[in-house]
Records
---
Amino acid sequence: NRHSWIAPTSTDVRSPCPGLNTLANHGYLPRNGRNISVPMIMDAALDGFNVGSDSIIQAAKFGLLSGNAFTTMDLDALQLHNLIEHDASISRGDFASGDNLHFNETLFSTLADANPGVDYYNATSAGQVQQERLAISLATNPNITNTLKEFLLRCRESALYLSVMGDPLTGVAPKKFVQIFFREERMPIAEGWTRPNVTITPDTTSPIEVIVGEASNWTATQQCEDLVIGP
Ligand code: HEM
Ligand code: MG
C-alpha cells in the first residue's frame, strides 16, 4: 500500500535523521527526499509517528536554512554541520570523520549493546549511550563541537526515539524496535510495533529529556560556536 516500506533508490536522497528517513521510506514524506515543506513534515510526523508539531517545528524551520529554496528543503542538505547536524551522534560519524550522513553500524554498537540483560531501552540507558558516544568523539575528534546547543539537541533526539518506538509516557522502548528504526529506517510493524496512541509533545518528552541529560553526566567542551545559518 501507499505506506509500505521501500528502500531508497540511488537517486533518492536521505538525511542524518532516522525519523525523517523512516517517514520517507514509508511514503509519509516524498520518497525522493526532495522539495519538502514544513507543513509536509508536520503532517508526516503526526500521521506516521503521532509526533505533534510543537516537538519538531523549530527543527523543521531551521531545516529551511540548509538550502537555497525559499520554502522547502532536501533531506541530504540537512547534513549541513552545526545547523542541526552535530557531532557525537548515536548512529552517524562526526563531521570531521568525513561522513556525518550515513548510518554507521560500528558507532551504533554503543546503543545496540546498551542496557544489558533486559529487552528494552529507557531514559537512563539513553543518557549512558550519549555519555559513551561523546567520550568516543572527544577521544578521536580534536575538532569536536560540544556546547549546550548540541547537548539539548541530543537529549531531544534520544527522547524522540524512545517515544516513537516505545511508550511516550514512560520512555521505555523495546530494543528490537529501536534497532530496526535506526538500522533499516523502517517502522517495525511486522514485529508488532504500532503508532503511539498518545501524541508526543514537549509535555511528554521534557521529563524524559531531563532523565537522559542527568544520566549522561554531560559537560561542555566550548561555550559557543560559529553560527551556521546557510549552505
Ligand atoms: C537526528 C529522530 C524530526 C532533523 C535525529 C536523531 C533522532 C531523530 C533519534 C538522532 C540520530 C543520531 O544521533 O544518530 C527524529 C524523529 C522526528 C524527527 C522521531 C519526528 C518525526 C526531525 C525534523 C528535522 C530533523 C523535523 C528537521 C527538519 C534532524 C537532523 C539530525 C536528526 C538534521 C542529525 C543530528 C545529528 O545526529 O547530527 N532525529 N527526528 N529531525 N534529526 Fe531528527
Ligand atoms: Mg551528527
---
Amino acid sequence: MCMTSIVIAGAGYGGVMAGRKFEKAMQPFTLINKHSYHQFITWLHEAAGGRHRIDDYKVELSEVFRQSIVTQIKDEVTFIDRQQRKVIGKKGEYPYDYAMIALGSAPEFFGIKGLAEYSLQLRSIETARQIRTHIEQQFTAYREDQDETHLRIVVGGAGLTGIEFVGELMDWLPDLCDRLGIPNNRFEVQNIEAAPAILPALSENLQTKAKKILEEKGVRIRTNTKITKVEADAVYLESGEVVHAKTIVWTGGVRANPVLKNSGFTCDGRGRAKVNAYLQSIDDERVFVIGDCASFESAGRPLPPTAQLATQMGDVAATNLLALSKGEQMVHFQPKILGTLASLGRDVGVGFIAGMQTSGTPAGIAKELSKVKYLWQLGGLRMVTRNRRSLVREY
Ligand code: NAD
C-alpha cells in the first residue's frame, strides 16, 4: 500500500468517483467537503419541482465510503496553497503530496444588476428546498390577496437546467393549485432565453421537439429575449418590457468555483483551471483538477461542465495520480460523450444516446434509467437498492 498523502477537495460527481477509485485500490485519502453528504445535483430540478422528498436527493458520504482508509472532513475549502502543499479550509489546513480539486461550480451572473440578490438558483439541496418552499408560500399568499404576480414564475435561461426545471414545474403546479384550492389555469411559467433557441447542447430537431412539448404543457418560452436587470419581483428585458413576478429563478449558466482563480491557477474565461492531457493543472503536476473546475480542451474548445464528464475525469485523474505517485506512466483523458438527456417533466424528455435521437416517453424512460446507472457507479447494488424506490420511477 502506498502511503502517499492524497487530499480530494469536493465530493461532487468528480470527487466521489476519484474516491471510489482510490478506495478500490486500497489507497488512503482525505476527502474534504462542505457537507457530510453527496448531492445528486443533476436531479435537483425534481427536488425543487415537487417530485420526491428533498432529502432523497443526497446520500451521506459515510454511506458511499465505508472503509477506514477514507478520512472524511466536513469543511469548506477556501484556498489551495501550492507552495506549502496544503488545502486550506475554514476550519483547518490539510497537507498533501497530491491533491484532486473537484469543487464544482457557482452561478454565472454576467454582471446583470440585481440578479444575484433577487433571484433564486438551483445549485444545492438547500437552494432546491428554498425554491420549493418559496413557490408554495407564494401560491398560498395568492389566496389572501389574489395578486397574480404570486402565481407568475420566471425562469431565466433555457439550457438544460432551466428546461428541466420548467418541465418539472408544469407537472407539479397543477397539483399544488388543487391542494390549495386555486384554479389551475391561473399560474404562469415564463422561460426567458437570450439566444434564438433553447437547449444549446442539442440538435435543432430536438430543440424544436422540446419546445413543442413544453408549450403544450403550458410553458411560455420566450427566445431572443435577454434579461438585463432584476429587482425584487421584477425582471427587466432588453426590449424595455418589465415582467412582474414574485418567483425569479436564474439558470443562465455557471462558472467554476472561485477558489481556483483566487488560488492563482491559470484559468479560462469561466474561472476553470487549465489542465493537461492527464488532467493535471498546467501550473502544478501534483494538483489534478476535474469536473466543472477543469478547463480541458477537446476539438479546440473546453469541454462543457457536465456530471457525465466529471465522473469520467474523476476516474482517470485518480488512475493517473496513483500512477504518478508510483513513477508509472499516466494515460491521456479521452472524453466520451455517451449521450445527453433532458427531462421535460416526470414522464417525457428529449436527447440522444450513442448518437441516436430520442424524445417523448422513451427519452423519459432513458432518463430514469440513467439514474440507476449513476447509482450503480456510485455504490453498486447497495446504492441502487437504497435509492431506487425513492428516486426512480417504477414502470
Ligand atoms: P447553460 O450555460 O447551458 O445555459 C444557460 C442559458 O441561459 C443559455 O442558453 C444562455 O443563452 C441563457 N442566458 C444567459 N444569459 C441570459 C440572459 N441575460 N437572459 C436570458 N437568457 C440568458 O447553463 P445550465 O443549463 O445551467 O447548464 C450548465 C452546464 O451543466 C451545461 O454544460 C449543461 O450541459 C450541464 N447540465 C447538464 C444536464 C443534463 O445532462 N441533463 C442538466 C443540467 C445541466
